[in-house]
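Quick one:
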Amino acid sequence: MVTRREKERSLTELEDKFRRAQAAVLADYMGLTVAEISYLRKIAREAGVELEVVKNTLAALATRRAGIEGLDGLFSGPTAVAFGYDDPISPAKVIDRFSREKREVPFKGGYLAGKVLGPGEVKNLAVLPGRQELLGTVVSTLQAPIAGFQRVLAGNLRGLVVALGRIAEKRAAAG
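Output:
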């Protein structure tokens, strides 16, 4: 039997996770085997996401204590919470990846930057490009004008070299 002290410690830890997380995604893990849950935890860990199967009453209380309103109604049935501390999109991406690779795990909703999200909004987050992809896009966007400018300058220099070469040829032919 779980003691009151253990419950309070679990509640405090869960509240701390909700406070620290940039995003939290709730999913229904009903029907998953132990092997599937282990795989889900593995891909979550690889993505820097913490996955926790929660007791609904404790989770609802932890969110209220963390100052997050509106998630209470989502804590029913088997609930897993994916916490993203560094990348707010990662929790949704991890569950979406698992759903595509193994078995559908429906989103219940989530929390991002002070806003409660519905299942559809979480699904939309999952299809956004990841942090690395976005950084790559920014870098290539910043490089494009510089590369274009470099090509224009190189073209002008090439033209100058060709013109000087023709002038030299004319002088050699005349002289």
